[in-house]
Recover the amino acids of this structure.
């Protein structure tokens, strides 16, 4: 890859941010102050609006489905979140008030700090990877030296792939999130052909590759990873965001080995915590989502708890618990039919069994995941949280007396 050619090509194009106003979360705002440069824009006005079907970007899980189910899933509209389209350039009070409801954070408009991002503002480095709709490059913001990842999405591929909704959702949701275990989206801009996302750089790449290389993770590592995922999901659920596509392919690893949930293409902001659309990846799909969309079949953020159980199983066993033919996988998920190998410790087995529960309401809550003995055993922060949560109850009488 000839970086100088790439940079030269970037220099030739004009990339103006067409956003005329700016919604900023309080957290983003403080970031802006501290770094003095980056800010978040949430308009995706250049994307053609479309109600068409959705596809996944990376792993094509839906292709694994039987044709009937696949079409049912693919045709399911996945969000009611409506974002401003290109024909609503002038912001109406409606669109602003709608966007105010997208997160719990206080949103406010600060046109004065709207940063007009463009490619010449970045030094472009090595390619980090290639997704279905574009490439990701290491980059440095010139004025601050801030290292980030630029994801370059091609508009024609997005509309051909009919994933406009997914991209909008990803930008809208991710730009309002700030948690150490959630990949930050600092901002975005576009030109006539491309949309460029300014992302946090995850130096150690995809968790999926780590898992494939190591085959499975030792329990201490799996426990620390599950604790981080539980913390991230707790944060998301507090903001009424269900991720709905938790799996190793959608998790990146930061410079210190910390996990960062990415790929919010399937996530959804659902303030009433109930959704009845169907999407996601078959191996990780919870039983309530397998049953398909329907008025009587709502599901909640507890879908992510099931996926956390599948993830934990895959970390410890090297494969997902329901891996089988497509039909068999569906049948086995519907019955929670899985076996945990004897190589897995009793404590870990207990947590998997508390997560992979058919009744969503009976799945172990995230607070209790964090204080589960298997997590506590391997995680210092878990231990502290455990002590705080359990108080005197679990201390020995001598400890209490001293
Ligand atoms: P995506 O289009 O999001 O699937 O990204 C394609 C590939 O680029 C991923 O599989 C990662 O290997 C890499 N990548 C994406 N985003 C980042 C990031 N923020 N930091 C480091 N690598 C990334």
């Amino acid at each position: 890859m000839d970086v100088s050619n790439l940079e030269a090509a970037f220099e030739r194009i004009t990339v103006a941010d067409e956003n005329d106003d700016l919604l900023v979360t309080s957290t983003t705002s403080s970031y802006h102050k501290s770094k003095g440069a980056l800010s978040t824009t949430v308009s995706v006005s250049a994307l053609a609006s479309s109600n068409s079907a959705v596809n996944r970007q990376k792993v094509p899980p839906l292709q694994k489905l039987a044709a009937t189910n696949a079409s049912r899933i693919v045709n399911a509209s996945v969000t009611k979140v409506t974002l401003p389209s290109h024909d609503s350039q002038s912001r109406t009070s409606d669109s602003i008030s709608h966007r105010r409801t997208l997160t719990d954070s206080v949103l406010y408009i600060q046109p004065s700090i709207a940063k007009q991002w463009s490619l010449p503002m970045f030094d472009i480095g090595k390619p980090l990877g290639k997704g279905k709709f574009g490439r990701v490059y290491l980059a440095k913001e010139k004025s601050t030296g801030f290292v980030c990842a630029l994801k370059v999405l091609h508009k024609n591929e997005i509309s051909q792939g009919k994933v406009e909704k997914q991209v909008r959702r990803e930008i809208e949701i991710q730009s309002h999130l700030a948690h150490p275990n959630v990949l930050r989206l600092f901002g975005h801009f576009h030109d006539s052909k491309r949309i460029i996302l300014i992302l946090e750089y995850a130096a150690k790449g995809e968790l999926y590759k780590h898992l494939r290389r190591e085959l499975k993770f030792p329990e201490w590592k799996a426990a620390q990873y599950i604790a981080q995922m539980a913390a991230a999901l707790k944060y998301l659920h507090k903001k009424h965001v269900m991720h709905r596509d938790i799996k190793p392919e959608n998790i990146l690893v930061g410079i210190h080995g910390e996990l960062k949930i990415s790929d919010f293409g399937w996530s959804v902001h659902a303030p009433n915590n109930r959704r009845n659309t169907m999407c996601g990846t078959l191996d990780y799909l919870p039983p309530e989502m397998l049953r398909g969309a329907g008025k009587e079949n709502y599901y909640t953020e507890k879908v992510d708890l099931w996926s956390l159980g599948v993830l934990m199983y895959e970390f410890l066993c090297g494969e997902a618990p329901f891996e089988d033919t497509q039909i068999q996988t569906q049948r086995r998920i519907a019955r929670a039919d899985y076996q945990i190998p004897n190589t897995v410790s009793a404590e870990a087995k207990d947590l998997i069994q508390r997560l992979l529960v058919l009744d969503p309401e009976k799945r172990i809550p995230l607070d209790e995941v964090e204080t589960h003995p298997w997590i506590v055993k391997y995680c210092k922060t878990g231990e502290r949280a455990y002590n705080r949560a359990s108080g005197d109850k679990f201390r020995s009488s001598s400890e209490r007396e001293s």
Confidence is low (pLDDT under 50) at residues 1-112, 272-280, 382-402. The first strand starts at residue 23 and ends at 24. The pocket of adenosine monophosphate is lined by residues 57-58, 128-131, 136, 149, 151, 183, 199-202, 205-206, 252 (CB under 6 Å). The radius of gyration is 22 Å.
